[in-house]
Amino acid sequence: MAIDHLDGALIELLAREPRIGVLEASRRLGVARGTVQARLDRLQSNGVIRGFGPEVDPAALGYPVTAFATLEIKQGQGGDVRAHLATVPEVLELHTTTGHGDMLCRLVARSNADLQRVIDRVVGFDGIVRASTAIVMENPVPLRIIPLVKQASGD
Amino acid sequence: MAIDHLDGALIELLAREPRIGVLEASRRLGVARGTVQARLDRLQSNGVIRGFGPEVDPAALGYPVTAFATLEIKQGQGGDVRAHLATVPEVLELHTTTGHGDMLCRLVARSNADLQRVIDRVVGFDGIVRASTAIVMENPVPLRIIPLVKQASGD
DNA sequence: CCACCTGCTAGGCATCATGCCCAGCAAATG
DNA sequence: CATTTGCTGGGCATGATGCCTAGCAGGTGG
């Protein structure tokens, strides 16, 4: 479960050059191929590395607008709301949270006007009492994991 | 820039079985290898597919607590705050937004107690006026892109 | 103190995928 | 009508992969 320095270096290497093979990785890290293979297997069965799925940019798909919506849910309707939001393709992510809102979701849309349509679809559901939306203007720190990996592997 | 059905099917296939090769993908999709290769190249240079980096689970690294913090920033301090947050490994993501808060960031921590430390570090900076934090309890819809890809490629 | 187990190294081997080439062909474009 | 673009189907050399063996160091428990 804990990660050591070699694991960390391997993850960093894979993040920088994803198309690298096991053999090339072993050369870069200066260890035997079998070691890299074993570490990779372990990281994957550990769940540390969930997979190597393609990272798709919604903007390049024609959805350049991102927003976060905080939703307030009617008591006991949580399950229904979840199921409803799961059917909306523009909902990229949904969390239930503590705090004032009950749920937080990430939305994308084709334009600011289109965002209105998406929000209407999201909140046009009985269990949702109130929604407050924050439109993303900039993304100074895109989703990243490497700094955390470095910290977890002892810098 | 727009995506057709074959592109969509290719992305879905890669998302389901990331370790698949170009050759195997071409067999599954029933097209020639060169076609898959060309589509993949195009999707990558288009920026639709940003890469194939490993998806690392923070929980498996020992950071099972996720939270979203809404920050209010003192006028003119935006740049400094951004730079500050970029140095905190537990800040996985940072957006500037419209709405009441000025920024929204995703945090992880080793525990609820540790989250206090992280928040102190995040807000312990001059330009930040106020912070409100929502701790994630559940994640009913994990970050996903496939439904959007299907929609963008014409179902 | 010894036996054991685990993790890393180093190598061998057959199979398979890759990158790169070609020529042919169909549809869309000018 | 000529050209361009995208897909097909194939060939070929190189390289990576999956799977195996054997040796060796370190730590653990009897």
From TrEMBL, chains A, B:
One of the GO BP terms on file:
response to amino acid
Can you name this protein? Answer: Lrp/AsnC family transcriptional regulator
Q: Which organism is it from?
A: Streptomyces kasugaensis
A GO cellular-component term linked to this record = cytosol
A GO molecular-function annotation: sequence-specific DNA binding
Every HTH asnC-type domain range = 3-64
One Pfam family per UniProt: HTH_24
Q: Does the keyword Amino-acid biosynthesis apply?
A: no
SUPFAM superfamilies in the record: Dimeric alpha+beta barrel, Winged helix' DNA-binding domain
Q: Which UniProt keywords apply?
A: DNA-binding, Transcription, Transcription regulation
